[in-house]
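Need a sequence for this fold. Nothing fancy.
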């Protein structure tokens, strides 16, 4: 959480503005949603705000395919204002690293709901924030710590009947301790002879993916690729099934 604390201590310096303009430093900086239970305990409330913000970004940020292909890593800086009602206004990319990362980071900010507004001299005010969003690709050793689980399927060799029996079951990625990790993107690919088709969703089997699974035939290969994010890293977790009958 130290990283996100630095967001509020490093990127904001005090500047004088007119009454209608946003401030960059106030007595109490805005809090991300979901931390109303801490009352006057500002330290715990700030920690909750940072934790919730990290979780939200991890759950909603999609690493662009172009950036993956080009192995682009780095930090995008998004600037926006939290108004007196807690709404985000005027978000834009202040620093980009290319490969579609700027647009991906901006899309996450657009998904955010209302914040708890900043306070200056007892009044709610507009506050300008600069939010760094890190893009970091995982290594093979990172992805090896994670596994994909689907229903009651244990073997890599499965029948079409078994696949159909689990088609309504959730796809779950677990870390090395068995804890479930949120999937940001799920791609299912099917290959047989010279035929190749794939379908992508945001973590849950959608209609297109279910249709794909129903089309598989013997000697085909069905591959699940799940993207997860943890500790600031994007991690690709794969699982391959061979259709035996």
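Here you go.
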């Amino acid at each position: 959480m130290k990283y996100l604390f630095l967001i509020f201590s490093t990127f904001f310096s005090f500047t004088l503005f007119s009454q209608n303009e946003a401030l960059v430093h106030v007595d109490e900086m805005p809090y991300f949603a979901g931390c109303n239970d801490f009352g006057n305990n500002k330290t715990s409330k700030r920690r909750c705000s940072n934790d919730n913000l990290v979780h939200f970004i991890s759950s909603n940020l999609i690493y662009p395919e172009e950036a993956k292909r080009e192995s682009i890593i780095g930090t995008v800086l998004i600037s926006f204002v939290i108004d007196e009602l807690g709404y985000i206004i005027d978000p834009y990319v202040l620093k980009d690293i290319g490969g579609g990362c700027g647009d991906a980071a901006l899309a996450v900010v657009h998904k955010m709901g209302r914040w708890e507004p900043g306070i200056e001299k007892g009044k709610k005010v507009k506050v300008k924030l600069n939010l760094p969003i890190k893009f970091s690709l995982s290594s093979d050793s990172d992805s090896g710590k994670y596994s994909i689980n689907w229903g009651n399927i244990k073997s890599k060799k499965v029948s079409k009947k078994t696949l159909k029996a689990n088609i309504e079951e959730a796809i779950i990625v677990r870390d090395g301790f068995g804890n479930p990790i949120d999937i940001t993107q799920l791609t299912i690919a099917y290959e047989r002879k010279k035929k190749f088709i794939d379908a992508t969703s945001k973590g849950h089997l959608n209609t297109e993916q279910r249709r794909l699974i129903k089309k598989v035939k013997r000697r085909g290969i069905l591959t699940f690729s799940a993207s997860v994010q943890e500790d600031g890293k994007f991690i690709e977790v794969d699982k391959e099934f061979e259709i035996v009958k």
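For context: The first helix runs from residue 2 to 10.
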